[in-house]
Amino acid sequence: MAAPGRALFVVSAADHWTLRDGTRHPSGYWGEELAVPHREFTAAGRQVTLATPGGRPPTLDRLSMSRTAGLPRTLREVSAYLGSIRAELARPVALEAVDPDDFDTVFYPGGHGPMEDLAQDPVSGALLTRVLRSGRPLGLLCHAPAALLAARDEGGSWPFTGYRMTALSNTEEKLNSFGRKAAWLLEDRLRAEGAHYVKGRLPLLPFTTADRNLHTGQNPASSARLAAQLLAALAR
């Protein structure tokens, strides 16, 4: 049974994203997408546990700390917060050893990392299926819904078929030159799998949605809103 106040953050352990031509674009997790929800959950009195495949320390996508990623003040705050949880980031729990029933919510931050590893990780896929079926709040942000692609139920079908969800849109992905070289686009894959994909009217602005216990955010700007949405669901 879940311990009250415990949240599991599942973070990609990938340090690159393989593009269509086989080149490896340096990547990892997106700073704001981990720091802001972690800060909000902690401020609300929730104990956060970080887990990665193999228990490997996650890699910060340096692009997420560049001038194009946000306002200088926001980037300074994100950098400072990540520094304050440096010890946690250096010693995450191995995802394979995690029992999702020990937590009352599960959250996946994005960055291109999940496109590389979590999208085909059967351990993560099984965890997602189990949490969905449990009814406990499940949140995924930006590229993190790629992890849903690895989920399968006992009959082999996709447990998220028909669920309303969002994720980084094709338009937003293609705003980066390397995004145009993607081997596949997340919006397309989610739609093809059977998701009811939705997005905000304008790219890069905050947009979140919820369907039953599944909560998703479209982009880094949605970090605080998605965290608040999950905390509100926990309070009900």
UniProtKB/TrEMBL annotation:
One Pfam family recorded for the sequence: DJ-1_PfpI
The organism's place on the tree of life at top rank: Bacteria
GO MF annotations, alphabetized: glyoxalase III activity; peptidase activity
InterPro entries: Class_I_gatase-like, DJ-1/PfpI, Prot/Nucl_acid_deglycase
Gene Ontology annotations of biological process type: methylglyoxal catabolic process to D-lactate via S-lactoyl-glutathione; proteolysis
Name used for this protein in its record: Intracellular protease/amidase
Stated family: Belongs to the peptidase C56 family. HSP31-like subfamily.
Domain DJ-1/PfpI: start-end pairs: 33-231
GO CC term (a single one): cytoplasm
